[in-house]
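We emphasize that the prediction below concerns an isolated chain of 130 residues; any contacts that depend on oligomerization or on bound cofactors are therefore not represented. The input was used exactly as deposited, without trimming of termini.
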Amino acid sequence: MNTDAHGLELNDVTYKIIGCMYRVHSALGPGLLESTYEVCLLHELAKNGLKVERQKALPIVYDGIKLDAAYRIDLLVEDRVIIELKVVDVIANIHKAQVLSYLKLSKCEVGLLINFNVTDMKKGITRLKA
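Result of the prediction step, given as a token string:
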């Protein structure tokens, strides 16, 4: 069984996250700044009992040394799900590559790439696995 400290399975965590994203998007709609969605989603996740960290530093280990490469995870939920937020016309391959790189560096299993600049939130969610 793949559970976290709260006894939640990974799919339960991502289900709760997606529910929170829908609530934020429903309340705010598209077209705002990424930082606005980030703080609102942070609040919604915490309100729903999830452990969440904002702008979590992600060092890189090179040649056996941990180096600060200025990578930051928008939101890290339950120490295992990376959320990368975007407000763009179209999610590009470089955005997916960014999340996949964060997954590799962090050893997290799942990343959610979220584009809030959509009218239908269902079309704004991309789930990526390490």
